[in-house]
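Researcher: We're teaching a course module on how sequence relates to structure. For the next exercise, students receive a sequence and then see the predicted structure as tokens, so they can try to spot secondary structure elements on their own. Here is the exercise chain.
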Amino acid sequence: MNAIHIKPSVFSSTILRSVSSKLALIMMGTLTLSACQPADNIANDISANENNQALAPERTQTIEAIAGVPMQQLATFDPQEIKQGGDTGITITSSESYSKPSSNLTASRKGSFFIGNAFFKQPWVVAPASTDSRDGLGALFNVAACQSCHIKDGRGHAPMNSEDDADSLLIRLAMPATTDEQREQLQNSLIEKVVHPMYGGQLQDRGIQGVPAEARIAVQWTEKPVTFADGHVETLRAPTFNLTKPGYGAFDDELMVSPRVALPMIGLGLLEQIPDEDIKKQADSDDENNDGIRGKFNWVMDPQTGETALGRFGWKAGQTKLLTQNQSAFNEDMGLTSNIRPHESCMPMQTACLNATTGADEQGNGKPPVEVNDEVAKFVEFYTRNLAVPHRRNADDKLVLAGKKRFYDMGCQSCHTPRYQLPKTDDDHLEQHGQVIYPYTDLLLHDMGDDLADRTIAGKLPPKDAQVEFLANSYEWRTPALWGIGLAQTVDSQATFLHDGRARTLMEAVLWHGGEAETQKQKVLKLDKQGRTELNAFLKSL
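Model: And here is the predicted structure for the students to work with:
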């Protein structure tokens, strides 16, 4: 079997990989946009009654309770929203916009940030090596450094053609449950997924010398024109992903395949501090308010504690916190072990992978030898927690405010919850304590329709009861935060949008929406040129 053709879907983010405490001393010297409905009037003032018609009353009350301010204030010019990351935010609008520390980070804490930054950028090498503090790459892996996925700490992109490397895109894998035990484990979040017996839960398209890569990833694009009510045509592109040169035997036809590009890294520490209850109270999995929006939260197994907890990170909200997200990425993307993920990312029958030399160092205190020790993991966690969110630009511009009015009138805030007030907790997250933030996300899973759903390796839509990442199925995606999205292509000109990187512009991302956002997309298609310009101006201001 030479090539496998996959009808698309999605991407995950990947976050990191790093190095040992010895390197710590050496080193000191990553849209889902809800579509929006047009407004008849573009006045900047919006009455509460007019705006509330876009949402079910219960949803409006929930958003206002979380925000602490009325919807009318959210929908008009709010000076506080310029600092969408609160006091952590920055004013930089260059290719470095995603790579700066929180502006309220004290001098005494900046050292940890910059050490973590060094770990994030430095490539790992194959063991054994003279650089024994950061050796142990692989044996199977996707990239050698975190920065390879999260280019300048931004979002990734799909391969442009069959010759392009898939550095900032990876493929997640899952098999359908076939036994009652597997079904029960999935229903109770005791396992993330049913993995493939040979290829595991993530395809690794590289291997060190002597270890065959699992497959090669390529993509082909097909144009899809979409016509607005005024006759304007927007050309979308649909990907077909190809897995060629399978290294460990043929893929099963029912294998579910999920392409995912890297998510941006900004504001993650702020999202981590949103209270669980604020996320849970937005869930409406049975659509009790009859508005067509069925957000649900993912309930996942925390690999650090062994307890189930609310998921909030990744395209499927499959990770509970940054520490576990990072160490899972170390393991799956770079083949590096840590105390949370102490086993090599090799399947039992991949003998060359299992027999490869590791870079693991003894940790003492009864802990297993690992390649990423706790000290390094904490530096990387601190870095990922404190990447600042850029301030909004032109927030009081008339065109931007007209676009904001359209966004709210159409009910985009149904999924893209604008504002949260973070608590002051008893942890060390000092920079995030008590901030008022504007991320535009509910962190919930939403069914985005068939076009954005994952496919099986045979190109078929999986059944909706097939879980692929804890409680999430192939059709469901976590609402990404919109803050900073207007600078995505300033940070990296190749950055793309949506889980599999198919959208080249923000409007393309909107037009791919279906499922729970189908009604809003149809409203967007009624926008004339002026309306499209206004909506785009608002999104670009974020």
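Model: If you want an answer key for the exercise: The chain has 17 helices and 17 strands. The chain has a mean pLDDT of 90.
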